[in-house]
Amino acid sequence: MTVREIRLYGDPVLRTVTDPVTEFGEASRALAKDLLDTLDLPGRAGVAAPQIGVPLRAFSYDLEGQRGVVFNPVLTGTEGEQSGEEGCLSVPGLWFPTPRAAWAAVEGFDADGEPMRVEGEGELARCLQHETDHLDGIVYIHRLEPSTRRGAMREIRRSAWFASA
Fold first, then answer.
1. Residues whose CB falls within 8 Å of the CB of residue 91, separated by 6 or more in sequence, listed in order
2. Residue 52's closest CA among 89, 26, 19?
3. Separation between Cα atoms, residue 35 and residue 86, nearest integer Å
4. Against a cut of 0.90, is the pTM above it?
5. CA–CA gap between residue 5 and residue 142 (Å, rounded)
6. Continuous segment of H or E residues that includes residue 149
7. Which of 13, 21, 79, 136 makes the best surface tag, with the fewest CB within 10 Å?
8. Which of 119, 123, 131, 145 is catalytic?
9. How far apart are CA 63 and CA 93, in angstroms?
10. Structural domain tally of the chain?
11. Is 134 annotated as a binding residue?
12. Collapsing DSSP states into helix, strand and coil, what is residue 126?
């Protein structure tokens, strides 16, 4: 089992738009395994490749009975609205109300390059949007309402993990 270290907010890899995966095979299967192994720790719903220091378009998810890895995901649809507290492994211990679509779908490829689609509502929809954002260099705090974001940034700057980064 290979659990990779999670990169924390402030690491430039989290603000970088990722590169598409162009070859599928041994390397993509190894990345998928690392993403799933890193996801397996308690309290984790999704992990994007940049969060483990890999600037490629891939993420893992495990929610509502659905589990897997999507390479080169494209958010193909969203509907409705939901609000609720959202957190991120790269912003540990902090949760903020984050608006998201109530339903979302992504299309991409599995580790062998076969087309796939994942869709869901509620927490799975939130996860699909959150992880796809990571691949575009967007951390969820950038989706917050301006006043909430200012407060979030104050809390981040005061946190022990940010001060030591």
1. 8, 9, 139, 140, 141, 156
2. 89
3. 20
4. yes
5. 23
6. helix 146-158
7. 79
8. 131
9. 20
10. 1
11. yes
12. helix
Q: Is residue 3 part of a domain?
A: no
Which CATH number fits the domain that encloses residue 130?
A: 3.90.45.10
Burial 10-32 (b: 16+ CB within 10 A, else e): eeebbeeebeebeebeeebeebb
Query: Whole domain around residue 62: which residue ranges?
Result: 12-163
Torsion of CA 133, 153, 164, 59, to 10 degrees: -10
Is 142 annotated for ligand binding? no
Question: The tokens 């608006």 sit on which residue?
Answer: 99
Structure tokens, 134: 């990571």
131 in active site = yes
pLDDT one-digit tens code per residue, 8-65: 999 999 999 999 999 999 999 999 999 999 999 988 999 999 999 999 999 999 998 9
Length, in residues, of the chain:
165
| pLDDT of 163 over the 90 cut | no
Strands 66-79 and 103-109, by their bridges, are antiparallel
Tokens of 123: 């927490």
Edge-first strand order for the sheet with 66-79 is 46-48, 58-63, 66-79, 103-109, 115-121
